[in-house]
Structures are given as C-alpha cells and as structure tokens.
Amino acid sequence: ATPLKTLDPEIHAIIAAELGRQQSHIELIASENFVMPALMEAQGSVLTNKYAEGYPAKRWYGGCEFVDQVESLAIERAKKLFGAEHANVQPHSGSQANFAVYTSVLQPGDKILGMNLSHGGHLTHGNPANFSGKLYQFVQYGVREADGLIDYDELAATAQREKPRMITVGASAYSRIIDFERMAKIARDCGAYLFADIAHIAGLVAAGVHPSPVPFADFVTTTTHKTLRGPRGGLILCKAAHAKAIDSAVFPGAQGGPLMHVIAAKAVCLGECLKPGFKDYAKKIVANTQALCASMEKRGYKIVSGGTDNHLFLVDLRASLPELTAKKAQETLDLANVTLNKNTVPFETRSPFQASGIRIGGAAVTSRGMSEADMDEIAGIIDDVLKAIGTDREAAAIAGSKQRVLALTARYPLPYKF
Ligand code: PLP
Description:
Pathway: One-carbon metabolism; tetrahydrofolate interconversion; Amino-acid biosynthesis; glycine biosynthesis; glycine from L-serine: step 1/1. Homodimer. The protein is α/β, with parallel strands linked by helices. Helix content is 45%, strand content 13%. The chain is built from 17 helices and 15 strands. It is globular and about 65 Å long. The two termini are 17 Å apart. The relative contact order is 0.15.
C-alpha cells in the first residue's frame, strides 16, 4: 500500500499544514472542537467502503452484519445518553437532520416560528437563502434589546397570533440557558410541534450542565462535532410516535447510503459521553468560557446578554471599539494565530459581511487541556490586538501576540501525528 505522502504529496502537504495550523493557533470558533485520535481511527476505517442503505436488519444491500452492529450501538448509546425514545444517527450534517425533521411532519408552505438568525438562530431556521426559508413560511422571534435574552412572553403572544405548525428553538450564538419547558408550553398552547436544535449545546445537555429538551420536545436535533466532541455529522432524537416518520424522512427522504465510518465515530463519541469523565469536561468548558468572558468584560468589552451560561459568548464591539468591524477584528486576530468568527449581534447595524460581534467559544481550548488560568492570557492577547488595530502599534501588537499564542499552544500540544 502506497502511503499518502507518496501517492498524493500535494494533498499530504496540505493536511500536514492544516495540522500545523491547528497546533499553533488558539481555536475559539464556538462550533469547533478537537476529537480524540481513537475516534479518528474509527472514522478512517474500512467502514468507508460499505454501502448500507436502510436501517439495521432492514438493508437494501448484503454484507451489512457488522455495520448493523455499529449503527445499533450508536443508536442505543444516543438513546441512553439523552434519555430519548428514538434516535436516528444517519444525517450527514446538522442541516440534513433539520431537513428531515421539517419534512417528516410538515408540508411545503406550512408556518414555522423560528429564531431570527441575527439574534442567534441558524440558517436552517428560516433564512431566505436556505431551503428552510424557501420551503416554509417562517415567522421569526428574537431577543429583547434591553438584556439580550429570549423574550418568552412576546414569543408566546406571536405563537398565539400566528398559530405555527412548528416552533423551532435552539441557536448558534445564544449564550444563556434556554427554557425548553416554557417553550413546550408555548408550543402546546398553540397546537404546534416543538423542535429543539441543540447543535451547539448538546455536550452540555448530555452532561447535565444545561437542561435537556428531550422530555419536552417532539424532535431534537444536534450536530455531533461541537460540544459533543465527535465527528462532523448530525443526529435526530424524537418521541416513539415520530420514529417512523423521521427514519423515512432521512432515508429515503433526504439521503441515500449512510456514512458508516462516520456512524462508527459517532458511536465512539457517544460512548465517551456516557463515561463519568465527560461530565467534568462539560463543566470545565463552561468554567473556562465564563472565565474568558469575565476577562474580556474586565477589559471593557460589552458581552451580549451580559455573560454566559454555556460554551460561548458574543462580544458587541460597538460599545468599546465603535470604528472596528468584526470582519477586520477576525482578520487581524488571524494574523496573531487566534481563530474566531465575526457574527452579527442582535439589532445589528452593519451588514452581516462586516458585522459588529465576535463569537468566542471555549470547547476547543478546553479539549486541549487549557484551564481557567489560561483564559486571562487569551483575553489579554485578543485585547492587545483589537486595541492596536489602526494605530502605529498594530504590527508590533500582532507580532507580540503571535509569540504569546505560540508559547501557550506549545504548552498544550494536540495529540495528533500525521
Ligand atoms: N443548527 C445549529 C444551531 C447550528 O449552529 C449548526 C451549525 O453550526 C447547524 C444546525 C448545522 O450544522 P451543519 O453545519 O452540520 O449542517
């Protein structure tokens, strides 16, 4: 067998460079994480060779006796971890999981109440450029301007007025506890299905660090690659009554053959989440994120909603650095080896391409082994770069910060070889 380095040196070199980037940068993108090498072993296995359209013991192809075992284990672990009645582990991504939920019980044109993208919602919650916004009639809810929190009273009033068929709850950039029980009552009172998208917080939910929507929601989806620390992919949990509709919506509704190598990695991920150590990891994520958030606040930055209960927070740059766009902030921090993303803030005044917020997440640095003591150094690095932008100190601040990042990342090497 020819090794990749010989077979395709171009691709090999790019992957090696990407590993170098990951080793030498501070990763603060809230939707990313570092998986364990053993999980990559499962994902890089011969399971990639196998077609398995259908579900365990109900496949369209022969030779599925081993992949059946893998998928059954993944399903059982998902159900156990979240206390769910049914699990589908086949969605290739979070977006595909959401597609399956909508199509399982809704018709094109049906009304859905979903969270506004610029208030923290996701593309698949009704953005006009996304299938969700094209196929369904979305009405949006958001957060209160005064405190950045979901306005449940207004949401309940909107639900009563609009009578949606489904209410979508869950976000990509909301840093506070979501009251799923309250959401379920609002949905019940207007006769809507409740769909909770916990793509971001699933790891915290699994660990009991954030309340679970599973007892209250008809449908729950998540990605497996964020706080769950698994492979890139999606997962659906639902009540037994919707099991058949969900399975048909995934296959043959939305997808063909499942990615069995990814499902094996999902099973490994879910197995890890079931171990006692995962609770500590999830608690550490929140502690680190809160420490980082406090360190930014201490340096004069305004945090949307005033803080965080989970693995992320949003800095509204307009308060302390009104001239600085988030795009410029992101690009300049990149030069200092700090990776994060620009994000619109609620009641945004700039275009989404420029934006006024930076989203900061603590899951990846926690996986790397960093602790609360390191969070103040990270905040100091970010602050030095941001405050120097556009001044004659800019180049020196970038160079100095990069050295500090390299010193910090060298203390916490990633466990990968390539
Ligand atoms: N839902 C939410 C709330 C998300 O934040 C994301 C991704 O960031 C998704 C769904 C979609 O996941 P994917 O990128 O795997 O399609």
